[in-house]
Amino acid sequence: MGAAIQRDLLRFATAGSVDDGKSTLVGRLLYDTKSVLADQIEAVQRASVDKGLATPDLSLLVDGLRAEREQGITIDVAYRYFGTPRREFVLADTPGHVQYTRNTVTGASTAELAVLLVDARYGVVEQTRRHAAVIALLRVPRLVLAVNKIDLVDYDEAVFTAIAKDFAGLATVLGYPAEQVITIPVSALVGDNVVEASANTPWYSGPTLLEHLESVPVTSPELDAPLRIPVQYVIRPRGGSSSDAAGRPAEHWGDLHDYRGYAGQVAAGTVRPGQEVLVLPEGLRSTVTAVDTADGELPSASVGRSVTVRLADDLDVARGSVIVDAAAPPTVTDQLETTVCWLSDQPLRPGARLLLKHGTRVTQAIIGALHDRLDTDTLTLSVPERLEINDIGRVSIRTADPLPVDDYAVSRATGSFLLIDPPTGNTLAAGLVGTPLLLSED
After folding, report:
1. Spatial CB neighbours of 230, under 8 Å, sequence gap ≥ 6
2. Which of 147, 148, 138 is nearest to 168 (CA)?
3. Rounded to an integer, what distance in angstroms lies between the CA atom of residue 335 and that of residue 320?
4. Model pTM?
């Protein structure tokens, strides 16, 4: 038996206004790639017949999430996993209602591509602009505009061209290079240009949606960024322990009684033995001597790999420290200029005392000035007295402890944080260090 072919992985998110057909599009992708079980298909077919429909209502494949939303769940992005012979996919399916704009932040925060739907009958609307602004703010590298329901405008090329031109102007304002944006005419209901090319759009010569998803380069910005490993746990086997960092029982430790390793997930870059590193915010310098995992030592480990790093020096390192590339360290500061998406019904005002979670460290924080608020409809800025739910604004924050931070535009891993309510532990905001969107003021 031959070795299995390793397929790469694309993480992408979907977004769109209510009734733009996003559920049907997601259902069509799952159905046409044979990523749903036979009993699920049969259930959808039966339900569709009961509704008097001549064709299966593929939106029913993802309707369970809608029922959950009706029960009042606020942050409920659904992750769908499917694959083709060419690539594996993780799809973050986000809701379309304006009050769930914050869900788009959750879904797009780890995406390498976003599929934004519009209804061909209405084109680019306010919610399109709002979602596009959030996607651009989060630095999602690539953007697809799916002009859905093209069948309802009789496959009119002029309608498609006008929408594509309108969206291209919006994407340019948001900072997207033309080569990172593609517009595709689709009908999720009928299946035009979703998985199979459609004879109904002879004027369109580009790829289908799935062809684009399969062929677009997968490039994680974090892979080429300098090394960042937030320390989750310091591992020191002692007499009362039953196993070492690699999960081996005590009798196999050998000379590892003095073992000291720093466990965490590689958030950016690559770690390898011999690499000179800094431990921040302490400012300690050392060299990596080994990269351990449960499967043994590795010659290197990159983004997403959970490892235990051993250093040449016995340093005073604790949870919340960050191991970084000594040649390209982040800035260590307690004064942050940030952009936050406010997620709470309780408004944010200057002077608020909150908790800030950055990597594996939690510290106290005080909100300073609210510099501006982004109007996601007009893409302009204004000075607010407070931030309401779903607002995106530029905010100064002072922290009790200095933090090793990068600008979000440089590294998502160490350029992002959460604001937390101290009494309840609820997440109040998702934050980005710096100003990812540079727009004009009113």
Report:
1. 264, 265, 267, 320, 321, 322, 359, 360, 361, 413, 414
2. 147
3. 18
4. 0.77
